[in-house]
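Support reply, case 0932

Customer input (verbatim):
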Amino acid sequence: MIIRNYWNSAWRNLMKRKGFSFINIFGLAVGMASALLILTYVAFEFSFDKMHSKSARIYRVQSTFHEGEALTDDWATSSFGYGSAMQENLAGIEDYTRVGCIIQPEQLVKYGELCLRENEIAYADPGFFRLFDFELLKGDRTSCLSMPGQVVITERIARKYFRDEDPVGKILIFNSNMGKMSCEVTGVMKEMPSNSHIHYNFLLSYATLPKWVQEYWYKHEAYTYVLLDSPERKEEIERAFPQLAEKYKTEEALKNKTWGVRLEPLEKIHLNPQLGYEAELKGNRSAIIALIFGAIAILIIAWINYINLTVARSMERAKEVGVRRVVGAFPKQLVNQFLFEAFVMNLIAFVIALGLIELLLPAFNQLVGRTITFSVWFTEYWGILVLLLFVAGIYISGYYPARALLRKKPIVLLKGKFQNSRAGENTRKILVIVQYTASMILLCGTLIVFAQLNYMRCQSLGVKTDQILVIKFPGPTEGMKTKMEAMRKAIRKLPLASKVTCSGAVPGEEVAMFLSNHRAHDALKQNRLYEMLSCDPDYIDAYGLEVVAGRGFSEEYGDDVNKLVINETAARMLGYMDNDDAIGEEIAVETVGEPMQVIGVVKDYHQQALNKGYTGVMLFHKDKIDWIPQRYISVVMK
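Our regenerated output:
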């Protein structure tokens, strides 16, 4: 009976002034929708990699290299041999898995007459499905990756290649720089969730890799994950690893460095700082926290706006409240009535907000580059937090107007004098000040972000990137070098093409090919890691790199295959304080028999984002180191 009376009163007041009610509710709904969209994104970012039952005990093994106390290199990857050696020699590791995906992430895949270029290809050992709970729709989790020549594919890939056929038992042919491999489909897995940092379309068995690679310590191109028997083991394993590494440091490269590992908790990988060789473009924890405060500020603005409008409306209802008190209504009943009305208004606004979010979510997903759904609210505590926030909003927006009226005597309310009271006026002024303060904070934050983005757009990168069309290399075929040279010359003859160059990387991405090099005449052989960029003689000119000493590659000299062009950071790492001092010097390059001569130094340029420092880069002729592949054709357009 009481609830029905509250409902009748709420509905009557809602309908009495429809325009006022619409403005109040719709304004609150827009604020709720904005805040909920932001908080949905925040919840999604914090939900990464928590879908696995053992996630609290799974750690990624990340490589660190020190010279004395100085950290010189920090990678998300580890070598192919870390996992097995750690389990064999260090206590506390229950299980491990390795995922080799950098070695050949993109290949040609053939089934029958269908031949397509595919990426997100990885080599995983049997422990993959023991550590991770990715759903396997067909196949045996324990054996689907246990033998050479096996592959597990996703549902989408199964439909793409086999349509309505059962893919299990069928043969896919993979063609890469390592040659052709025939693999039997032994499993079909569900698409990996969007809130996982692990995303692959093809999982080839680890045993399919060449034997020499599988336990090799000098190729840090695998992601290794370990399952600890207890999280407390983390520091113990990290301390013990450098001594273990000494046993396997059998080659000259990096012998002067201390090899270490950092065990990164699986659930924290996505929001921790970006490292070299990352599998994904990671989130930013600081930005996410800022978004939380932004969402709260928007809600505060919306609720204060609602309270101010409600208080203004409540003043008109002062006589109604006065009459109710005169006839015997208890203060508690009046507070409950206002709280119920606030609940109805907030509930209607919340439903409208959900509708707005449903309409805006596709565009929002496109804006943030994610696939976000409401399902994130049903994971962990996020749904409870939103519910508590909703209840708090109802309480604040309903309780304050009620108390503002109940503080006055019934006779004052009946005379309508409350409307001009100084206390009510001051309270509303305070609320308006808080509202404008929150608005100014949001506005200033927006202007700061805009200024940062504008700075990024206008900052000189030291490399030309406009009017350049970048094309991926074709799949490997016989006589690849000859065909690519003919293709390059053919493109160069096109009317719109100014310059054409081939390279292993382009500005905007990691070079991601490191070799351990030192000065040829350095008696101490102080090896350091340098990014090795494979390119042809036109690369420096095409991308507008500034040569500050010596010269760049040129076909006119004829013998540049054994030469190097380095950047200023690489010159400093080699010990040359002046750029001219590096010209003519010989550098011992890992895997290369004879020393290579430095013929030029280019000014440091931003190979990646502005928030990343300059790294030592050595440019070498594309014909010198065959196993570092060419990956891109860059066409400078007129």
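We compared this against your earlier run and they match. Two observations from our side: The radius of gyration is 32 Å. The chain has three domains: 2-48+284-455, 104-208, 468-637. Please reopen the case if you see a mismatch on your end.
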